[in-house]
Amino acid sequence: xxxxxxxxxxxxxxxxxxxxxxxxxxxxxxxxxxxxxxxxxxxxxxxxxxxxxxxxxxxxxxxxxxxxxxxxxxxxxxxxxxxxxxxxxxxxxxxxxxxxxxxxxxxxxxxxxxxxxxxxxxxxxxxxxxxxxxxxxxxxxxxxxxxxxxxxxxxxxxxxxxxxxxxxxxxxxxxxxxxxxxxxxxxxxxxxxxxxxxxxxxxxxxxxxxxxxxxxxxxxxxxxxxxxxxxxxxxxxxxxxxxxxxxxxxxxxxxxxxxxxxxxxxxxxxxxxxxxxxxxxxxxxx
Length: 286
Prior knowledge:
The protein is of the alpha+beta class.
């Protein structure tokens, strides 16, 4: 839309200069005006084709990443199911397979949820919210449990010494915090924990999630909440998958906005990267 508006403004401005000649407008001027319009139309058509090609390439890349990332946990579930079906399998062996199946199912469930929310947002649909009196500390603990299932080698630390009640959409906020915890686990340094803190005042609850991995470049801070954006992987980030849909932070921002809350990020020494979510404790009026 912006590109089309620029071409429209250019065409109108140049045509006004020609028309300002009035009676001095000659057949040569008219021919020049026709060629100018043809050039604008050609440039606009080429721009539209380029934009469409880039959009199609982005869609193909998105589908390729989705297929790749879903295939890995699905293969784990299929292999575990095959092993469980073998005669003579011991209880000890079956007990070892159960966490693998649970982790793979959690990964697929998280991806599918993010994909559904992204599709709804792109289609212009409203994100359905179900506000009810809830305890934010319980929501945070559930998110930690979900993230721990996906990242069993990561240590999550959550201080849940106090209860913070309010009118929240429990399921949606759990998705927000799970996405942020997963993101923190993926980008943390090796063997370093991810910490989650909860504080509150009379009006709002504040949730901070911190990891001590590689810092986010300043030029990337403004883009990380855009869909299908992912940061570079460092050798220290052993939990990080080689591919990612890049939807987790986008969905987190959408849900936070639906609560009329805010989400922000700071990445600097010595504190590392901290995502801060502030959620009002009263239900939005609309």
